[in-house]
């Protein structure tokens, strides 16, 4: 698709993010409900969502807080879960790094899984997009999702335990990440990273405070990086032999 203006790129971002509305709403409502059940007031739950704006980190922190885990562990765990956002940012820097500071600040705040997944595919598919069009597209991917997340959190916090278990809102979390991660596994390194992380998470499930997930994430990233390096070296050696 050839964009004529940043506005057209923005609206394509909105359209591309539309399917995520089906999960962002229940996801946000689930957080609001759990926050209310954990004893947080509505204003506290909303402040949580407005300042952090990272669903997985919020759920991790909330669960650990309910278990009376030391604050240091809560912070470390939430930061570890969100380490992937730093990699997202590094990956998008070649495409968005030339934007004005205030736009990059907005993008940093709005950097979530679906905005990254949609944007990196779009930017790789349309390499001729201008910096204004790229930023407009990125912001478009969150134009509906962010307000929906806030409003759903508010709804869940107000309803609290009145939401019946039959709604199975907790099922939204794994489905969301499966939908995001599966299309992004496009190389051998990605497959190795995913498999190592899965196996490690299962084997380390006994660790306290859900630290097994942190270990799994770190080992998965290390395995993926080493696989990428090994494949690159092999490719280089093959090219030298053929020449």
UniProtKB/TrEMBL annotation:
Origin species: Aliisedimentitalea scapharcae
Keyword hit for Membrane: yes
Name of this chain's protein: AzlC family ABC transporter permease
Source superkingdom: Bacteria
Topology relative to the membrane: Multi-pass membrane protein
InterPro entries recorded: Brnchd-chn_aa_trnsp_permease
Pfam families in UniProt: AzlC (PF03591)
Subcellular location: Cell membrane
Main location: membrane
Entry similarity comment: Belongs to the AzlC family.
Transmembrane segments: 135-160, 213-231
Keyword Transport assigned: yes
Keywords: Cell membrane, Membrane, Transmembrane, Transmembrane helix, Transport
């Amino acid at each position: 698709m050839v964009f004529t203006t940043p506005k057209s790129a923005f609206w394509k971002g909105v359209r591309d993010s539309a399917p995520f509305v089906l999960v962002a709403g229940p996801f946000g409502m689930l957080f609001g409900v759990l926050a209310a059940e954990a004893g947080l007031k509505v204003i506290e739950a909303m402040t949580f969502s407005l300042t952090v704006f990272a669903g997985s980190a919020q759920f991790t922190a909330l669960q650990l807080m309910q278990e009376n885990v030391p604050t240091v562990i809560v912070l470390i765990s939430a930061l570890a879960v969100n380490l992937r956002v730093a990699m997202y940012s590094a990956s998008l820097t070649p495409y968005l790094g030339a934007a004005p500071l205030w736009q990059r600040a907005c993008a940093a705040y709005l950097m979530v899984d679906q905005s990254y997944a949609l944007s990196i595919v779009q930017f790789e598919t349309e390499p001729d997009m201008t910096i204004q069009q790229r930023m407009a597209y990125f912001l478009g991917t969150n134009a509906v999702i962010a307000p929906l997340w806030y409003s759903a959190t508010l709804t869940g916090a107000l309803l609290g335990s009145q939401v019946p278990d039959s709604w199975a809102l907790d099922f939204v979390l794994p489905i969301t990440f499966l939908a995001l991660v599966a299309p992004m596994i496009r190389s051998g390194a990605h497959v190795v990273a995913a498999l190592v992380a899965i196996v490690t998470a299962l084997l380390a499930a006994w660790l306290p405070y859900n630290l097994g997930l942190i270990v799994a994430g770190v080992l998965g990233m290390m395995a993926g990086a080493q696989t990428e390096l090994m494949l690159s070296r092999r490719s280089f050696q093959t090219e030298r032999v053929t020449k």
